[in-house]
Structures are given as C-alpha cells and as structure tokens.
Structures
1.
Amino acid sequence: MKKKLRKEIIEIRNSIPSLERKKKDLRIMKKLFTIPEFKKAQTVLFYASFRTEVNTIGMMKESLKMGKRVVLPKVDKDRHKLNLYQIKDAGELSPGYSGIPEPFLPNERLININEVDLVIVPGAGFDYSGSRLGYGAGYYDALLSNMQKKIPFIALAYEEQLVQSIPSELYDVKVNMIITDKQVIKIT
C-alpha cells in the first residue's frame, strides 16, 4: 500500500513543470523563513533536495547568510543511520547514497541530533495529521526517535504531495508542521 502510494505521489510531483516548481519553491521558502519556529532556531537540520523534491539548496544558502548553523545528514549504510554534519557552504556537498547530495566532511564537523533546534524533514507525501510517507529506508524515523528534546519537525511539500491519509506504524515519526506553496498546516 505504502509503496503504491509513494509511487503515485512521486509521479504527480514529477509532473509539475520545472518553472512552476521553482515558483512554488520560492513561496515555500518565504513561508518557512517567516514562521517563529525558524526565526528562533539557531541550528537547523535540512535535507539536500534530490530530483523533484522541494529545493532546499537556496534555503540552506540563505540560512547560512543569516548566521544559522546548517546541518545535513549523510547516510551510514553499514550502521543504518544518519550522521549529521555542520556545513559552512553548499559547495561541501557531493553525490552520496542513491545519488543524494551529502556532506563529505571530517568528523570534527559531526553534530549530535540533540544540538539541533529545528528539523526539515523530507518525504514523498504527507497527510493532514502529520503522517509522513518517506522513501522506505526508515533513516529519519530512526534518527528522530532518538531526540531527547522536543523540537519542531517541519515538512516542506508541494500542495500536490498532500493526501487524505497515509498508513502509519507505531515507529513512524510524525511532523508538527507542513509548509506547502499554498498553506502552513500546524498539527496539534
């Protein structure tokens, strides 16, 4: 069921024309930058956008200009976990796991998840209760379930990625907010 839904949502997302996606990306970025949760955060965990995901590269660059500490994940396939690294420039990313841009940095730049103030979570689709349809590997669920402090988990999505219901398991981590090109959905 999840696999079929993921495929359908990604096909819809892929069908959004490139120019339209760029306009939507800008609207999403403006919304993100105006919410109190983002303004207050000093350390933000972003994901590096891949293929037709909401483009986060510009958001990372702007966040660095604002003086925020920007953190990105790198997949450790052997341990089935995400390692987090502080980046100082978007140019520090290279294709990694499945071709996704990742930081290839020294261990001195490793960051603990509990140092993060805000998490921008990737996903194929989301529903109005905050359930997230990831890409099937469970890396984010494992990472976020280890949080010792309560911080916002925010999804960035095109309106087309919202669905009525996503099947979820007990271990699936929900998002607290979804920012689309048309709305900001706060999940209570």
2.
Amino acid sequence: MSAAPHDFRMSVEAYLALDNASTDARYEYLDGRVLMMSGGSLQHSFISNNIVAFFVQVLRGSRCKIFNSDARVRLNETHYVYPDATISCSDRPQMNIQTIGEPIVVFEVLSPSTEAFDRGEKLRSYRACPSLQAVLLISQDQPVIDVVLRQSADIWTVKDYHSDDEIVLDAIGVTLPVAEIYREITFEASPPKNEVIPS
C-alpha cells in the first residue's frame, strides 16, 4: 500500500483510535501527521505476495516471522507505519494483535505516486527505529531493489541489486535472490536506444 498525498494532524492516541476503528481504510502516523493509505496496482500486489511467500518458507521454524501489509509497525512513540512486508525476530510478545513493536527488516514496494515520499521522509523514519537493520525499496516497474543496511547506530549504506543478484540479509541469516521477488512477473521491454518512437 502507499500513502495518499493528503494528510491531517492529530494526537497519537486519537490516531490509534481512528486506525483501530477503521474497517475500510488504514492510516500511517508520522510525528502528528496522519496519512491515509491507498491501494496499489496488481503488479504491486503480486510483488508483495512473492515477498511474503518466500519468507514464510525460509523462516519456518525460526524465531523470525514475516507479516504482510495488514500489520501496523511502531517505529517509535510518534511513528506508526504499514510497510508492504515486515520481519520481526523479537523474543518479546508483540505490542498487541495489530502492532509490531520491534521490526528488523521492512519491505516497501515503490509506487510512482509515493516513491519520493518512501525514499525521503518515510525512509528517515525507518532509519530512526533502533531495532531496524534493513529496508528494501523495491521497484515495481523494473527488477531493481535498493537495499538500505544499518552498519552502526548512525551509519547506513545503500546498494542496488538487479535480477541476477542475491541479497545477503545478515540480520536474519537469509540470502534473498532478487528473482524470487519478481517471480512470474513480466516487465515491458525498453525500446533500443537508437529506435525512433513514433509520435
């Protein structure tokens, strides 16, 4: 899912009451701002499903669990978000039936309308979460994934991966082939550089 461009402000208590009571919409909360979530494309949905399907299998039997976009994630006292998928390895019980309190890896499938927001303000919120070790920003238009990895408390690195690459997620002991994220997805071929596109 992606955040709609319009937003409004309220207290965190009012936000939680709104989000918990809502049956037909979800809302993110960033420092007092409430952003209504909107649905994504079929491509977006398929990629999200591939992420969850892969990690359900590889994490089976481990203490780490994968959650889909129905799970609200608490980054800190004033930041609540809905990633497209979240992995938590916490030994402590989660905060409640709907909220994950200690994410370790999050996945965002980028939408054209929200990519700048996801790479900007939302990524800064992720990087401020003490438990988070990796953020995967996943293109839905081409097989490219930007992986943002925590190296220390304040230092992060960014590297892009393509269809034949493998992503090593040391925080959960998993190697993720990029091809698994894009399994059964066909992308439109780009025209050759010298080809004249008719107007």
3.
Amino acid sequence: MNISLILVPTDFSECAMNSLDYAKHLAQQFDARLILLNVIDSREAQHFAAYSKEPLEKVLERLMNQGKQAFRRLLSNWDGKDMVQESLVSVGMPFQEIAMKARDFQVDLILMGGYGSRGKGGTIEEIFFGSTVEKVVRLLPCPVLCVPIGWPEGQ
C-alpha cells in the first residue's frame, strides 16, 4: 500500500491534536504529505447566529477567521509543518465536508481523533446516528484510522 496523502480533520481538541502528532509520525514513515481540515458545523453556526441575532454571514466569517488563526498558531509551533501540503477551513456538516475533501484531493488515508471537542459520545444525535468518525467510515472507500487520545501510551 502506498500512502502519499493523508487528510487530518481537526477541531483543535486534545484528541484531534493527538491524532495530528500520530499523522506526523505516519507521514514520516511513508514520506507522505498532510492536508489539515477544520470544518465549521453549519448547524451550530446557524444556532449561534439565531442566538446572537447576528447575520449568519457575519458569524461564518468570524468562525472562518478563527479557524485560520488557529491553523496559523498550530503551524507556527508544530514540528510537522513541513509535511503540510494545505490547511483548509470549510463550512458544512463535518462528516460530509471530510468526505468531499477526501474525494476532491483523492487522499490515501484519513486519520482523525476518536472524538472531538464535545467529548465521548453523549449527544442524542451521536447515540442515534453515530459520531462524525462513524459517518466518515461509512461514506468513504479509503481507509480511516481513528486515534484515541493518549494512544500510543507515553505520547
């Protein structure tokens, strides 16, 4: 199996950052490039816009800027930045955006954390419809590697 391009979705949570470090090590072993992706959940943005009474476009612009700034901070301090081909911020349903980007870039592997900033499973949606990871696994024909926080031990 030849792995030359790895998609790493991140929400900048502790678990996602753990998977990013794992992706760096894997990319080194395969001499692969990384595409980093942050997805702004369009449903959450709509809820926030309704709550704050701001136009949705303004909320999305602010969230996109925050995502781009988070990537700048991450890449300025991360020793794997030379492996990053691209870092993207997009808006939509996270599992759909991950699937679309994986297909658009024709990645060989998706490597993502076992759970995101919301924690381990607890929302009604996750109980009935599955987590983002589960939805991505069901949608894509390429391998998806799910890295739980703290794995491997000692890292």
4.
Amino acid sequence: MLDERRQELAQILVQTGKLVVKDLAASYHVSAETIRKDIAYLEKLGIAKKTHGGAIYINDERELPFFHTSTLNRNLKAAVAQKAVSLIRGRVVVMDGGSTTLAIARLLSLKENITVFTNSLSAVPILANATGVNLILTGGEVRKVSQDQVGSWTTRAIREISADIAFIGANSLVQKSGPSTSNMNEVEVKQAMIAASNRAYLVVDSSKLNVVSTYQFATWREFAGIVTDKGISEEFVDRVSKFTEVIIADET
C-alpha cells in the first residue's frame, strides 16, 4: 500500500505540478505526517520540492530510475502503445528504451513473424521468449539508470539496419522545434534509429509537456507522426501539426 500510494502521488505531482498535504491526507485517510514522509521520498528522487502545505514538481535534469518511471501514467502509456502498434506496416521494427516503448514491447510479444531491433535491456524478458518475435539487441555500453545500450558500438549496429518502422521515446516536449532527452549519449542512438527506418514515430504520453530536458535529438518534421494521449494540450497540437501528424490515442 505504501509503494502504491507513493507511485500515485508521483503521478499526481507530474500531471498537476503540485501536492497539497491536507487534501491528500483526507483522500488517503492517513495523517498529514505520513504524506509529508511521502513527499520527502519524492524529494529524494529529485521530482519534488517541499513547500508550505505541500510540494511542487521540479525537474533538475536528473533522470529517475527506470523502475520508477515505468510505473507512472501506465494507462496513458498503454493507450499510446496500442495505437502505435496499430501503425505497423511490415515486419521489421526498431525501437529505443523507455517506459512507453516497453509498453509497446508487451504488445509486440503477441505478434507473429516480426523482427525487433532494440537497445533496451528491459524489453529482453518480454520479447526474448515470444515465439513470433526475432529479437536482436544492438549491443553497447549499458546505462544503468535507463537500462539502455548506448555509444559508438550501438549506433554502428543501428546504421546497418533497414527497418519498416521506428518507435522513439522522449523525456520532454517543451522545446518548440523538437523533442529532447536528458542524456547526451542517447541523442546519436535516437538519430540513428530515425535514419534507419522508413517511418519513425515519436511515442510519448502528455506528461512530457511538464518536463524540461537539455538535448534535442530531432525536429518534428523527422517523424511520420507523434503518438500521444488525450491529455496533450491544444497549443501543442496546433504548433506541431504544422510539421507532422499528431495522433491521439484513446485511453484503454
């Protein structure tokens, strides 16, 4: 129950930008001190800053561990994944790591006669034993925080691929000219995957509008489309649809 509540509080924080101790204590039927301890936990993760009566959301360019981000906005990511998989035409998929692409991996495991190239170690337990999937890892140095493979070895392997479709995640949608990531080592990997595919799709949930990241890795024009959820702002859709299609997934 403790972990579940903290995961829910983290999701509320990312989506709304704040937590109010009094309201949350009443909602969860716990003491205000219990909620303050939960906020202290979120502060250690680097996403919360304590305020009088609660906390506000912050992003200080530190990445959250993958096991934590994979639990946030699960329903939204599942909806995005379902829509993304429906776009597959052909049998060769390349995708990078991340919680949304992990949701895509779960659906790909049900496919027949499909080849998946990825740098995501988190996808291995899902896809390695899927009878209809030929799984190929790119190789490379493992980033422990994200469980992805990166570096020159990784990009060299990806450049040898010819894929029908690519699914690319992002940390932030804030920059006006394109998506960004919080780690510079991921930039070349994402760029190589886009170049290696006939069609590349950005797959992100709407919470990424509340996150700031440093390294832009592509422009909107480089994607055949952006698959996201109903929470995306009208301002974002109006701005980005001038360059590529914005595809809204129905929540599952």
